[in-house]
Amino acid sequence: LRASGTMRETRVFGEDLRLTRAITARLGERALHIQDRVENLGSEPSPFMILYHMNAGFPLLDSTTRLLISDQHVEPRDDRAREGLADITRFGPPQRGFSEQVYWHDVRADADGYCSAAFVNEALDLSFGRGLGFAVRWRRDQLWNMVQWKQLGMGDYVAAIEPANCHTLGRCKERELGTLQHIAPGEVRRFDLDVSVLVGQDEITAFEAALPA
After folding, report:
1. Do residues 17 and 9 touch, judged by C-beta distance below 8 A?
2. What is the mean pLDDT of the chain?
3. Mean pLDDT, residues 38-47 taken together
4. What are 112-146's pLDDT values in tens digits?
5. Strands annotated E in 64-207
């Protein structure tokens, strides 16, 4: 099954970008394959920041959930995030007054150049058995940063895996850090991501074992 569409972002004296997206699902797989193509239709270079925000909530997210990831380095966004560094791969129960924590992960790529991360809950007992996971796979040469969002508030209980080509600080700060990317006139950027479901302890264990050391 394949669904595709096009969106154009344009304004006078500004950017003129076209995104073409195709989402494919193959019979027998528990996965979606996302292929994006971004083209600069304008006559000037355009600042270019892209982030894929993928949320997990209850019941996958609870106090027994883990983040599976292989990092080279993790940087907290601010002092609030720094408070939770010791528990970066763990998630507690909903908390009253929780203030969000954001982390930037420098993720190791495998031999094919792909990075992976997953939220897994091995204690979740469903009709088909125990253990469920939500996994994301992306190319490091396309999306160099993985943003982790933790918002464990009561009524706002959610976490996200966010592959990106930027931080989450806005263009001015990216420019200051030297990380703001631009897309040239006529240039095309491609992005390839897989989103999949891990069912049962065996699949969770196999995913974790395959992460690059």
Report:
1. yes
2. 96
3. 97
4. 999 999 999 999 988 878 999 999 999 999 999 99
5. 66-69, 71-76, 101-107, 114-126, 129-139, 145-153, 156-164, 182-183, 188-199
Alpha helix ranges (H) inside the chain: 79-82, 171-177, 200-210
Contact 212, 57 (CB under 8 A): no
* CB distance 89 to 67 below 8 Å: yes
Q: How many other C-beta atoms can be found within 10 angstroms of the C-beta atom of residue 204?
A: 22
**Residue 127: per-residue pLDDT:** 80
Is the pLDDT at 153 greater than 90? The verdict is: yes
- Is 156 buried (19+), middle (13-18) or exposed (0-12) by CB count in 10 A? exposed
- Using a cut of 0.90, tell me whether the model's pTM lies above it: yes
Distance CA 4, CA 8 (A): 14
Residue with tokens 């001015």: 172
